């Protein structure tokens, strides 16, 4: 048991409050991992935070921006990177307080595909994903990253569902 | 973090060698849990081993038995209980060697239903299930307890697939 156990945690921003706030489900998944797995045994674990940014979801994620030249888009991407970095900062700071080693990085693409690709590249011992606990009707529209990862990631996956008392009125919000 | 983390591990017998031998996938799931989660932190975890026995799968699980009276069936059930206990003994002994607390018990019924029912009753922090890693064609015939638990158990579930080099020639064997 010389080597540390490497736990990859997929994190994303709050869909209600946006960057740099973590979604309720990523925050829950992180806190569960610390409380139930890492506990005081901080030297035995390493957390690997992966944040996947979806490129240009609708092309207008910020109403006060005007895109008039390729440079504007570059700036936008640059700004997104910064906002993503602030999201990761939240988790890295928490780990620093607790005293557990961590790494964090950003990738771009379809979250479910990118997470599985990063698992293949980085070989974590297991993957933790938060889940909004949507009903079957809502799943049709928003898809579920967690279900895809459980099926396709090349490592064990543990899905942490949001607690019922943390679910917003519209459970698609997170 | 005063309370220990309670990990339920569903275990079954080897389909090739029978009782008291654990299946490759339950042995793998147990060893993974010790190596990657418990590690040396034995005082922080408690393992709860659940073995579900399927009653009278085909009515003839032992060719040298003749059932001629209700008492014969009682004796068979008694013998099954003993064989199940020997399976659990394997895991309890291992925990004892390692120094991690555990409990183990047997229930009867459809494994996937009983596991989810026991999760509801016992409230483990999470559930570990082994999986034979069957292809879609094989799944149709043997069903997968792990997929059912991932969907229906009222706690986080982590599925540990068998390593490729431990898969028997016919992957349905375990």
Whole-number average pLDDT of chain A?
86
Widest sheet, order of strands of chain A: 5-4-1-6-7
Structural shape of chain A:
globular
Total DSSP helices of chain A: 5
Give the topology string of chain A: H per helix, E per strand.
EEEHEHEHEHHE
CATH architecture of chain A: 3-Layer(aba) Sandwich
Helix content of chain A: 40-55%
Portion of residues in beta strands of chain A equals: 15-25%
Segments of chain A where pLDDT lies below 50 for 5+ residues? none
CATH superfamily of chain A: HUPs
Q: CATH topology of chain A, anyone? A: Rossmann fold
Describe the protein.
2 copies of one chain form a homodimer. By secondary structure, chain A is of the alpha/beta class. Chain A has helices at 24-38, 70-98, 111-122, 136-142, 145-152, and strands at residues 5-11, 13-14, 18-22, 45-53, 101-108, 126-131, 157-161. In chain A, the strands form 2 sheets. In chain A, strands 5-4-1-6-7 form a 5-stranded parallel β-sheet, with helices on both faces. Chain A has a two-stranded antiparallel sheet with strand order 2-3. In chain A, α3 runs parallel beside α5. In chain A, 37% of the residues are buried. The model of chain A has no long low-confidence stretch (mean pLDDT 86). At the A-B interface, α1 and β7 of A face α1 and β7 of B.
Quick tags:
two-stranded antiparallel sheet; AMP binding (chains A, B); five-stranded parallel beta sheet; Universal_stress_UspA (chains A, B); 7 strands; homodimer; 174 residues; alpha/beta; Rossmann fold
């Amino acid at each position: 048991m010389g080597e540390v156990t490497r736990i990859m945690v997929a994190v994303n921003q709050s869909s209600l409050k946006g960057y740099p706030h973590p979604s309720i489900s990523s925050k829950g998944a992180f806190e569960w991992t610390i409380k139930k797995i890492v506990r005081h045994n901080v030297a035995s674990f390493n957390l690997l935070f992966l944040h996947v940014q979806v490129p240009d979801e609708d092309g207008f994620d910020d109403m006060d921006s005007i895109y008039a030249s390729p440079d504007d888009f570059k700036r936008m991407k640059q700004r997104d990177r910064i906002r993503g970095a602030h999201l990761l900062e939240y988790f890295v700071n928490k780990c620093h307080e607790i005293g557990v080693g961590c790494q964090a990085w950003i990738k771009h693409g379809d979250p479910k595909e990118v997470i599985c690709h990063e698992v293949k590249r980085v070989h974590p011992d297991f993957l933790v994903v938060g889940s909004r606990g949507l009903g079957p009707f809502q799943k049709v529209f928003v898809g579920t990253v967690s279900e895809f990862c459980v099926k396709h990631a090349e490592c064990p996956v543990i899905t942490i569902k949001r607690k019922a008392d943390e679910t917003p009125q519209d459970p698609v919000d997170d």
